[in-house]
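As a warm-up, study this chain.
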Amino acid sequence: MSHSDASSKRVVVTGLGAITPIGNTLTDYWQGLMEGRNGIDAITHFDASNYACQIAGEVQGFDPLKYIDRKDAKRMARFSQFAIAASKQALADANFEITDLNAEQVGVIIGTGVGGLKVMEDQQEILLTRGPDRCSPFTVPTMIANMAAGLTAIHTGAKGPNNCTVTACAAGSNAIGDAFRLVSQGYAQAAICGGTEAAITPLAIAGFASARALSVRNDDPAHASRPFDSDRNGFVMGEGAGMLLLEDLEHALSRGAKIYAEIVGYGMTCDAYHMTSPVPGGEGATRAMQLALKDGGLSPEQVSYINAHGTSTTANDKTETAAIKTALGSHAYNIVVSSTKSMTGHLLGGSGGIEAVATVMAIANDAVPPTINLENPDPACDLDYVAHKSREMTVDVALSNSFGFGGHNVTLAFQKYAE
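Now compare it with the structure written out below.
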């Protein structure tokens, strides 16, 4: 259904929340992006001294008790704590109160890649060392991926459509796109949506490192995440959550809400090519961008900015660059592209959440976050990636790209709200 269909409602972003390696509030996160703040450092969550990769973008100083009482917080995994915190931030930011009167009209769609991986690892260890009777009764309900969406509803009172997207690194963006469709088609008046992840664990780091996907620049963590740079050697894992409150435009206007931007397009495709590698030339990513533009009734010439998937892996960055050129044609050289993963690392299923937040803020503030560490641009990556310093410029239409293992490709299209 295209944005222009008479039967579909316009959908706007009225609230934002963020828990990230460079700041645990929307204000701190956005300021960090604008400053080009680095969120990558040595791993402290476990002893990584004998791991090939010893660096990550950890969330610093997060206190779940600001958002959740102690007993409840103890009975949930970190990825769920992040989701509830960012969701409560987004609701507060939107000045949106969930009551008995509107609860059934508020949905929650939250994506994650692996859910409570740390819980699984810890309980497996208990099973093997202390026996089956010692495993926690909360093992399954804390570990399963849908629990961020379920617990967010429990802790906010949202009783509308509730779902969990699990499409690897595209999960957060799929969640936002699915929520957009639900609201635009009248299945909910509002939806909390985004992505969350807390997978800086021994198994995840070991597994990704064995696949040679991670940067091993352990002696220089601040410069390890370097999308589009010829010296990139893998992604850096991050953690956190980014949430948006989407609202039916009429509903937002009726309550006098502030509007950050309008969400107008959602494209999703599959490469149907390889478990982990993107299809050469980026055909699937190209179609995702084209579908998002078509959905929003937009032409390539209207796009100002693309928040790239930009993982800092050899394959992704050149493939995504090629896909942008195919999708936007010659206009690709007139737009700006940046990868905020250069600062936050790659939040896997959470990345689409914090990157949609960044994309919406770019529109609202007419400013684009930089790609830091871009010192020696890869010749195959020849677009304007806003190297080193943020840029003030008019941002009318912006796309956010997310691509996941399994060949999942998602593009979200946002634009400035105009009556």
